Every structure is written in C-alpha cells, then in structure tokens.
C-alpha cells in the first residue's frame, strides 16, 4: 500500500514537472517572436547605428503637406493667369470714324479710354460713350478696340475751300471744329468769272490739298 502511494506521488510530480516545462517553452517561444517585432517597429522610427539613434521624419505627412501647398499655389496661379476678357485696359483704343458725305472721305481719330474707366467692365465704357457721344453709333466693342461711327454733311478738317469773299476769291481752310478760316484773299474778282465758274465759287470749291486750289486760282486769273 505504501508503494502504491509512492508511485502515485511520483506520477503527480512528473505531471507537474511536465506542465512547468510546457509553460516555460511556450513563454520562451512567444517572447522570442514578439521581441524582434518590437525591435523592428522601434527601428522604423528610431533606427540605431552603433550607439547613435536617428529619428526618421514621417515622410507621409510631409508629402501630404507638400501636395496641399502645391494645390494652393496652382489655384493661386490660375486666378492670376485667367485673362479678363471684358475689361478696359490702358491699351484699349477708342476709334472715331467720321464719313463726310460731301467729299466721300472717311476720317479716323484714335484716343485712349478715360482713366477712371480703366479696369472697369466694357459695358460701363459703352454706356459712358453712348451718353457722351449720342450722335455716334458704337459698332464694335472689345478689350482691344471700341469703334464709333457717324456721318457728316460738313467738310473734313484741314481741307481747303475756294469761295467768294468781299467780291474776290478767298482761300479758306477748315479747322478741327469744322469752321472755315480765311488764310488768303486773292486779287481775282468774282465779277471776272463766267456764270458757271461764279456758281462754283459761290458754292465753294473744296479740295484736299493746297496745290489743287492754286491750280484753280491760276486758271481763273488767266
């Protein structure tokens, strides 16, 4: 009976020893697997070179920040580059075209837009021109050129007119305001002209340059 108890205790001791051995092996294996993983994770942020620890920056965050900055720069550049197609600029030309029906000449004049309208919308410039130049028609309106047109029964500026003045033939020149300015009073009396030539002189003989007027005066004085 005592031998049976001794055998039973021996089996119990061996069982306990086996459990301890199994627990030790399991713990060792588990720690052995987790330890390299922890070291690897630590090395990703703090790789060691000898005894020097270097901290690696988070490149992902830097790349995301750079992308955001680039996006903002591109957006800003787009706002600057986009041309303002309907805006009055310093280079916008205002062209006044006048057709003179008597001489069948088209006279063109160019000017710059008013300073107060530079940078404003073209529609505002068009309203301004319609109010200030009511006798003109706005025929073209863009950021490069605004063109106005009118017809006139007057004589174009700088043209010459030979007509009667105090019983003689006088030579006149038209100024910018359309006024006839006497520049020469000849010694050719209108009484010496034929009825047809006298009619021409009374109506006024219009020529574009002075040489043509001088040729007429020579014909009448001979």
Summarize the structure.
The chain has helices at residues 2-45, 59-81, 122-132, 195-203, 210-221; strands spanning 48-49, 52-53, 93-100, 105-111, 137-141, 145-152, 160-165, 168-174, 180-189, 205-207.
Give a quick set of tags describing it:
222 residues, alpha+beta, Ubiquitin-like (UB roll), four-stranded antiparallel beta sheet, 5 helices, 26% strand, rod-shaped
Q: Could you explain how this protein is built, in words?
A:
With about 220 residues, the chain is α+β, with helices and mostly antiparallel strands. Among the domains are: about 95-150, Ubiquitin-like (UB roll); about 160-220, no CATH class. It is about 45% helix and about 25% strand. β7 (about 160-165) and β8 (about 170-175) form a beta hairpin. The termini are far apart.
Mean pLDDT: 79
Helix content percent band: 40-55%
Q: Tell me what portion of residues adopts beta-strand conformation.
A: 25-35%
CA radius of gyration is 52 Å
Number of strands: 10
Secondary-structure class: alpha+beta
Unreliable stretches? 48-52, 69-83
Terminal CA distance = 178 Å
Across the major sheet, the strand order is: 4-3-6-5
Q: Which word captures the global form?
A: rod-shaped
| Biggest sheet character | 4 strands, mixed
List the helices and strands in order. HEEHEEHEEEEEHEH
> If helices are DSSP runs of H or I spanning 4 or more residues, what is the number of helices?
5
């Amino acid at each position: 009976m005592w031998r049976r108890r001794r055998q039973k205790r021996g089996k119990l001791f061996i069982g306990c020893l086996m459990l301890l051995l199994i627990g030790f092996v399991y713990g060792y294996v588990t720690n052995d697997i987790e330890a390299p993983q922890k070291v690897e994770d630590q090395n990703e942020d703090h790789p060691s070179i000898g005894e020097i620890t270097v901290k690696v920056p988070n490149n992902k965050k830097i790349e995301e920040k750079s992308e955001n900055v680039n996006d903002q720069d591109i957006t800003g550049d787009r706002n600057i580059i986009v041309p303002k197609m309907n805006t009055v600029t310093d280079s916008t030309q205002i062209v006044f075209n006048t057709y003179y029906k008597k001489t069948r000449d088209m006279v063109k004049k160019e000017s710059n837009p008013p300073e107060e309208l530079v940078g404003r919308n073209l529609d505002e410039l068009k309203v301004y021109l319609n109010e200030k130049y009511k006798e003109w028609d706005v025929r073209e309106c863009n950021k490069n050129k605004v063109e106005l047109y009118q017809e006139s029964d007057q004589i174009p500026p700088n043209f010459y007119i030979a007509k009667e003045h105090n019983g003689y033939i006088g030579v006149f020149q038209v100024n910018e305001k359309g006024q006839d300015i006497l520049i020469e009073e000849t010694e050719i009396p209108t009484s010496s002209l034929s009825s047809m030539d006298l009619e021409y002189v009374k109506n006024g003989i219009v020529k574009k340059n002075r040489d043509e007027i001088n040729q007429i005066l020579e014909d009448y004085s001979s």
